[in-house]
Amino acid sequence: SEPKPWAGRFTEATDAFVEAFTASIDFDKRLAPYDIQGSIAHAAMLKRIGVLSEEECEIITQGLEHIRGEIERGEFSWSVKLEDVHMNIEARLTERIGEAGKKLHTGRSRNDQVATDVRLYLRHEIDQIVREILRLQAALLDLAEREADTIMPGFTHLQVAQPVTFGHHLLAWYEMLSRDYERLLDCRKRVNIMPLGAAALAGTTFPLDRFYTAELLGFDRPAANSLDAVSDRDFAVEFIACASLIMMHLSRFSEELILWTSAQFGFIDLPDAFCTGSSIMPQKKNPDVPELVRGKSGRVFGHLMSLLTLMKSQPLAYNKDNQEDKEPLFDTVDTLRNCLRAFADMMPHVQPNRDSMYKSAQKGYATATDLADYLVRKGVPFRDAHEIVGKAVRLGIETGRDLSRLSLTELQQLSATIGPDVFEILTLEGSVRARNHFGGTAPNQVRAAVKQARRRLEEV
Ligand code: ARG
Question: Which CATH number applies to 360-459?
Answer without folding.
Answer: 1.10.40.30
